């Protein structure tokens, strides 16, 4: 009797890929976690694997034997327009060659400016920025590969990440350490507008759930995301938890500040609209279809602050 192939391969060992690898192990799967180094802390039940998935050979080696491949790879902001299409080409071909399903972690960029309209899976793709158009073109190719029968593909879109392990987010390494130590806390754009954040654990749970349900393939889903609050409300909640007033610096235009250096902010300028209009994500479709409930934002902030306290104590 032949065993059913169950290997889950996670490409990208950043916060999303690492959290997803743990989620999949918790669901009883064998897991391979791939990045270019193949190093990092041992995770029980996870095989670390070194490969450059921007190359055909690297991608093929990475996904060999996979039942489901999760594409959680990202690259430096200034490299995305050049590198992400190459990664897509290699990963699509590799997953197709081994007969694996492909679950893609995606962004909100294809929608472009919404002028405050709530984002659903039916929202038009109106991106005008370089990175937004690039993401929309990639997504159209993913869905075309599925509709053409090359392989089964599903996309899970997330808002800005927040949670343990999340450093490179507007609600990440620039905010929590400063909030805990009395440093300057940067807040981008109009901080009284609602802005959705997706808890990194919900990113993982959403992707793993899509990976477990082939009937969800062939479309975009919004990953479970708690109801949007304004940035000011979130900072007030952090203040209440730390017991100290935050030294908030409003960065109302794209300029270097703290960890947001000039290279990053030059590239980010075209995306700054995300902080000058409401960013509201509706994830009710995946919640209803799969019984998922997003982690409440107060619990997310508690968990994130605890993680950052440990991080600061270790240095």
Structural features, described:
The structure is a single chain. With 315 residues, the protein is α/β, with parallel strands linked by helices. The chain folds into 2 domains: 8-160 and 197-222, NAD(P)-binding Rossmann-like Domain (Rossmann fold), CATH 3.40.50; 161-195 and 227-279 and 295-313, UDP-galactose 4-epimerase, domain 1. Helices cover 38% and strands 17% of the residues. It contains 10 helices and 13 strands. The protein has helices at 15-26, 56-63, 80-98, 130-147, 176-181, 200-212, 231-242, 262-268, 284-290, 297-313, and strands at residues 8-11, 31-35, 46-50, 68-71, 101-106, 153-157, 160-162, 184-188, 194-195, 197-199, 220-222, 229-230, 247-251. The strands form 4 sheets. Strands 3-2-1-4-5-6-11 form a 7-stranded parallel sheet, sandwiched between helices. α4 (130-147) links the parallel β5 and β6 (153-157). The longest helix is centred in the first third of the chain and has 19 residues, at 80-98. The chain is globular. The termini are far apart. It comes from Streptomyces sp. 900116325. This is NAD-dependent epimerase/dehydratase family protein. Residues 10-217 form the NAD-dependent epimerase/dehydratase domain. InterPro entries: Epimerase_deHydtase, NAD(P)-bd_dom_sf, NAD(P)-dependent_oxidoreduct.
